[in-house]
Amino acid sequence: MDLVLNNLPFLLKGAYYTLLITVVSMFFGLVVGVATAIARLYGNKPVRWLARAYVSAIRGTPTLVQIIIVYYGLVEYGIEFGPLTAAYVALSINIGAYLSETFRGAIIAVPKGQTEAAYASGMTPWQTMRRIVFPQALRIAIPPMGNTFIGMLKETSLVSVITVTELLRSADLLIAQYYVYMPFYLAVAVMYWILSTLFSALLGYAERRLSIAY
Question: Where are the transmembrane segments (predicted)?
Answer without folding.
Answer: 15-42, 54-75, 81-99, 184-206
